[in-house]
Amino acid sequence: MCLINAHSFDKYKQQYLTMNSLFSILLKNLILLALIVISLVFMFTQYIGYKEVRFVFLGMGLLYVLSACFEAYTLSQVKNGTQKFIYFTDGFLAKRIIKIISFICIGVLLFYSGRSIIKYMSFLCFLIAFTEVVVTIWRYLKNLCFVALEDDKLILSTNKINITSAKEIEKIESRHGLMYFVNYNKKAITLRTDMMSENSEFKLALDTWIANNNLTEKVVKS
């Protein structure tokens, strides 16, 4: 009876976490959409003036930053007792930096476009760039980038969430500091284990996870 209750609790909690994740994604995108609509209304109508739009942008911009942090937090939630290992790699930082620089450059071009109204569109670009900086720092401080071993699932949380279950894995291969978990559909999760601060601890936990999920025969010796 206790086992059934525990299983049901875990199931409901997982559903709750999934709903929270969907809500956070929807909330962030709705705020961004609202900002775009407000910008267009400001540019092409007289309903919003220069003075009002600054306060609207400031308030909505703050909400967007907070919603992005909330999204990063909710997407990284896993079950209690799940083994998590920090995975903050150069590849993750590189993608964030490229995105930040791209939006800053677009924002600068809009700001110096010569048309005063168009300049206000640059705010959206600067806001997205600033949000990426804040979220990256937030992920680093809260250890929201990680590899997790949850029951029969392997979870990778970086720029997005990648999840694969043990039954989907065709082979596991390790070479040159890289580890590949290849699914039957030929999609793979790649880990830079050589850049993990908890490298040895992760390998021990992974060996146990592989054994518990009967994947030993699927490990390719390098």
Question: What can you see in these coordinates?
Answer:
The chain has helices spanning about 1-45, 50-75, 90-110, 115-120, 120-140, 200-210, and strands at about 85, 145-150, 155, 160-165, 170-175, 180-185, 190, 220. With about 220 residues, it is an alpha+beta fold. It has a domain at about 145-220. The strands form 2 sheets. It has a 4-stranded antiparallel beta sheet with strand order 1-2-3-4, covered by helices on one side. Helix 1 (about 1-45) runs antiparallel to helix 2. Residues about 1-15 have low confidence and may be disordered.
- The structure class reads alpha+beta
Low-pLDDT runs? 1-13
* Helix percentage: 55-70%
Total beta strand runs: 8
Major sheet characteristics: 4 strands, antiparallel
> If strands are numbered along the chain, what order do they take across the biggest sheet?
1-2-3-4
Principal-axis shape: elongated
Query: How many helices?
Result: 6
CA(first)-CA(last) distance: 45 Å
Mean pLDDT, all residues: 84
* Element string (H = helix, E = strand): HHEHHHEEEEEEHE
Question: Radius of gyration, Cα only, in angstroms?
Answer: 22 Å
Report strand %. 15-25%
Outline the fold blueprint.
Blueprint: H1 2-44, H2 50-75, E1 83-86, H3 90-111, H4 116-119, H5 122-141, E2 146-150, E3 153-157, E4 161-165, E5 169-175, E6 178-183, E7 188-192, H6 199-212, E8 219-220
Parallel strand pairs: 5-8
Antiparallel strand pairs: 1-2, 2-3, 3-4, 5-6, 6-7
Helix pairs in contact: 1-2, 2-5, 3-5
Summarize the entry for a quick read.
Helix 1 packs antiparallel against helix 2 (50-75), helix 2 runs parallel beside helix 5 (122-141) and helix 3 packs antiparallel against helix 5. The strands form 2 sheets. The protein has a 4-stranded antiparallel beta sheet with strand order 1-2-3-4, covered by helices on one side. Strands 7-6-5-8 form a 4-stranded mixed beta sheet, with no helix packed on it. The chain is built from 6 helices and 8 strands, in the order ααβαααββββββαβ.
